[in-house]
Amino acid sequence: MSTMNVSLPEPMKSWVEAHLKKEDRFSNKSDYIRYLIRRDQLRNKAIDSLQKAIDEGINSGDPKPFDSKVFKARMKEQYGRN
Questions:
Q1: DSSP 25
Q2: Are 18 and 32 in contact (CB under 8 A)?
Q3: In which residue ranges of the chain is pLDDT below 50?
């Protein structure tokens, strides 16, 4: 594992230290920072996935009318639910 030094303004440093005193799941500041980075990575992955779906929808052509009765009938037939 490599090392990285990070400088924080005093209010942020104090916040991290106070948070660690309340939270038992992080043994030190590094664990907490790694957790935040992993959470941000997952968030960015979700945003990228959502943006890809939006782009595909935009590029899929003109919208088609949606018939809720046909959709519900198809779902009942496919999944057997009322």
A1: S
A2: no
A3: none
CB atoms within 10 A of CB 58: 8
CA distance linking residue 22 with residue 26, whole number of Å: 10
Count other Cβ atoms within 10 Å, centred on residue 62. 4
* Cα four-point dihedral sign 17, 22, 23, 26: positive
pLDDT at 18: 92
The separation between the first and the last C-alpha atoms of the chain, rounded to the nearest angstrom, is: 55
Q: Residue with structure tokens 């939270």?
A: 23
Reported pTM? 0.68
Residue type, 53: A
Token pair 């779906």 in the structure block, residue: 53
